[in-house]
Design goal:
This protein is 36% helix and 15% strand. The chain is α/β, with parallel strands linked by helices.
Length: 246
Amino acid sequence: MRSIIHTDPPSQIALDKGLDFLVVAPHPDDAELGMGGTIAKMVSEGWRVGILDLTTGEPTPHGSEPLRRQETLAASDALQITWRGNAGLPNRKLEATLEARELVASYFRVLRPRWIFAPYWQDAHPDHVAATELIEAARFWSKLSKTEMPGERFHPERIYYYFCIHLRLAVQPDWIIDISEHWEQKLASVMAYQSQFVEGRPTEPPTMIDRIRDDAAHWGRLINRKYGEPLATREPLAMRSLRDLI
């Protein structure tokens, strides 16, 4: 399946059915870096998973918009996701404005994801903080009636949070996903962004990729698995059975 990055307005989106999960990312590569293994795992289990990048992520020191688009397509192919779009909001100047809130809420109403993933709410990067504020507000707005937003009113059940942060936090996740069987897919999706994680980076170990692998091994070690990814929630996490615990 060859991936497509949809840049049309939400009113022009046509899906045969809604998504199960929508990962919203401030920039292309944040979703892969924060939860690429979890995305691959969800896809392998038959879930319909989409990624909405809020900005192009450019300019960056070694990237460009055409290059970043090619990298994003390659990353999407590696993960085999159902849908990917870009909201076209301004990189480096992302704000939780009313206009941006309406736009993101429109995506929620049209894509109808049951669950949403957003960046962790603490970060040094202003775009990440603004993205999370925007996503939380848009979730509420997506259920409004008597509005000109496209689609029927809709309220995603939960927002969960992935860690793609620029602070050296002593992170305390609410749960950790075992991504051991999907580590290679995560690595492939991250490595697709050569302009971000390879070009201009130190070549002596530990490289950026070494650090990403070490982080995944750390989270895996905490659950007695090879690799893991941490996730968080503000609302209670419900489980049908303790059989899902490992």
